[in-house]
Amino acid sequence: MHAYRSHTCADLNKAHVGQEVRLSGWVHRVRDHGGVLFIDLRDHYGITQVLADSDSPAFAEIDKVRAEWVVQIDGRVKGRDASLVNPKLPTGEIEVYATGLTVLGASDELPMPVFGDVDYPEETRLTYRFLDLRREKLHNNMMLRSNVVRSMRKRMWDQGFNEFQTPIITASSPEGARDFLVPSRLHPGKFYALPQAPQQFKQLIMVAGFDRYFQIAPCFRDEDPRADRSPTDFYQLDIEMSFVTQEDVFAAVQPVVQGIFEEFAPGKKVYSDWTKIAYRDSLKWYGSDKPDLRNPIKMQDVSEHFAGSGFAIFAKLLEQDGNEIRAIPAPTGGSRKFCDRMNAFAQKEGLPGMGYIFWREAEDGSGMEAAGPLAKNIGPERTEAIRVQLGLEKGDAAFFLGGKPETFESIAGRARNEIGRELNLTEQNCFKFAWIVDFPMYEKTDDGKIDFSHNPFSMPQGGLEALNGDPLQVYAYQYDLACNGYELISGGIRNHKPEIMFKAFELAGYPNSEVEKRFGGMVKAFKYGAPPHGGCAAGIDRIVMLLADEANIREVIMFPMNQRAEDLLMGAPSEPTNTQLRELSLRSAPKE
Q: Which of 162, 220, 481, 591 could lock onto 489 through a cystine, CB 3.0 to 4.6 A?
């Protein structure tokens, strides 16, 4: 017999009754039923029930073990009585009568339980992550992640893509976040950077003639943490293709992503009609560039109905160029109680409140009437025009925000989501996707300068000629894939012509010398025949988070950092030793 096990804890069934077996695993829990001891023995594969009565030679040893001890059990497989069968376990028709027990690894008193779903503080969970990962939910999440990655690879190979690895130690690149720098021992005073993405290398792979590339790529960004973003590193399905248009990329990506969701989200509807929404329209309609389309609410510009109206606040706003009034329709939200709740929500978001109108049965029984402070101020003719534009009926409501769109769009988007949840308008148990397209190439920074708004390597729509006009009117062949309120994919058709690249960076304040210095490899490559190419990257962590129905990305990462970008288990970041600093020709600045 094998030194540790003849079977796993998920293998045994009625066909094994009478056989002598050996199992090894963790003691999931111990139960004493009046002279009969039961152990639920757990390994990676499942759970098997082990028992020993006072006649068993293993009884005395089993009586000593505690939860999470690692033990080896020798015994004989018995069939359970029909009334004792556990249909929830693959091994539920049998149990193992123990004849011997060997302790392979005893456990100290546990700082947190493994059995059950008790919610423990994050600090404890991350400090003892190896225990946390023994819990069924976390274990299942990690296996889901592994299977998703395996399926991604197969789907990419089946579509004719080839997997190549790109360097982990490289040069700094402006990808929109801070780099993690790595000091060079051989070149004192110089630093490498961990790649924020394999962007330049995958483009060089296209220049080298490999046509279709993918990689399960680690990426490193020194970012502020969010529930859906790791503060240090993440993995993405990185893709690049030659001789393609934007539509070609979409056609290659959709079967992979949709197939993953269909495969790993059984019982949930996966919509196949991936709509395309211009970035500017996404902000206008949904208040976000990653809209949750499960929510049917679509915001609208209703400025014309408030211009010159009796509601002075909005009327005065509209006298200034660039200001708008947006309406958030709220079907079935037509009650003062609901409107008051949404006002309280707005106040929590830092606003004084939100204007609203709701439509109800007229008190005199004459039909439908508009109610609320706004309705009284602007009169029945304007409120009726708003109702007709928004397609609302009796029992519905609408909420209003005004000003420069960039100042209120994000709050409007959150209010839209809250209304969808509160009124049960948001569809459940489904995934809805949308390509967000036509991103602006540039944006104006707080100090009035022009900078790239997204990926600096995207091709401007209209090419070199487009860059001779107003930079803020230039759109890029840049696109994102949104799903249920999250950004899953970002990509673009690349700028593969040196003259366009120099001009694009010049508008963002990078002289040619700086471009040559920072991206010399790509500039050099583009001078020797670069094909039109494009691609994207899909966030694996975020995809698994959605599939696992988790609200926090740390629940699908094996060893995540905490909110302060600390590894509580391994003690990172840590202070370097003096020897390390001397080898790297570095000196640690005193703490302020």
A: 481
